[in-house]
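S.,

Sequence below, as promised.
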Amino acid sequence: MPTRAPNVPSQGRAVGDERPYHHGRLRAELLVHAHGVLRADGADALTLRDLGRRAGVSPSAPFRHFATRTDLLDALAMDGYRTLLASMRTALESETSTQGRLHALARNYVAFARTNPPLLRLMTGRRKSTWDRGALGDIAGSAFALLESVIRDGQAAGELRAGDPSDLTIAAWSQVHGLATLIADGMLEPVPDRHTPSTVVHTAVDVLINGLRPATDPG
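The prediction came back faster than expected:
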């Protein structure tokens, strides 16, 4: 397997630390660099050749793991959904009531969005045709299904209105996602002691829950 000529280090590496054309953890290393570029400069700045340079390998080496730039973006989105799904599950561990669980998921989603807005944009900006290709759709669907399970449990307990749980889940996700995007993009500048992200999220989820509750008999 070819290697670089001796004493010609890749950019940012010391002499004697040259990398082979291909190494066993290259895919994982490329994704680490890709997440860094995404966070700092956004998705438009991502190219496979640049990631190869950052990893200290041949410009063509990344294409062994990601045939196209779209494949790279899909992999980043999958990483994001895995992280989001794991944090959603953790957020639910200490909550038992429907109201508490919905509040926990909303806080978690907003926190995720604020931590890495470009990653959330990438995740939710993938077209449905991309999701339908398999693994990305599966992991995104798992996150949706977790929220839907909370909605179903609330319906079974009589705490949420009857109806198609998928429709209610779409309504809930849409409201929280919109709020998270506004906060992450700095569109809702917090006012000390008044409109902090936590108070805005709490109010929004209370409004959402009130809208999802069973209708009361006016008589």
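Confidence is low (pLDDT under 50) at residues 1-18.

Coffee later?
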